[in-house]
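HUMAN: Now follow token order:
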Amino acid sequence: MAALFTGKVLMANREQDEVETERELGLALENKVLLLYFGSGQCPRCRQFSPLLKDFFLRLTDEFYVERASQLVLVYVSRDETEEQQSAFLRTMPKRWLAVPFGDALKRELELRFAVSEVPAVVVLKPNGEVIVGNAVEEIRRMGPACFRNWQEAAELVDRNFLLAEDFDEWARRSITDPIRRLKYKLDKKATETKNKEGKEEGEESS
């Protein structure tokens, strides 16, 4: 995936940090599904969709919803008219988002490469840069975070331990009670075996 941004610069949201070296990009993008969000803070359709995408992203990456962040990274590719507009929009979005710097030629390169003609558009990519979904806007609207499972399988990520919050709650309850149930089963089984053995011995003595 880093090859897509070789020699380029990405900005960390709401910070002055730049993610530009091959090593940094490799660590940021390795073994992750990448979302390229082409949008604008001034576009009416984007203003409707962006809050959905924000919630979608948080539910997959924020510790409030999941035990650990899923293998997902998002890069905002702006169609804002000014740098101030881009910055103002990003301030309302998750800090984990990355962004193409305003006015960077990479924006146009990505639009052409992925045939983006209108916004909002969300291109979903495998870690090797192959396209999973050309525009996932409707899928995200319809399915919410559940669609990440499909992308994860398509991307063949190494770590397949992703759990949605509700799944984790169920798993946690099960993981806590299972050892108790197993222990109780062993104790019950042992007690039954001991009782049967004693009964058998008593039967032999009486005979």
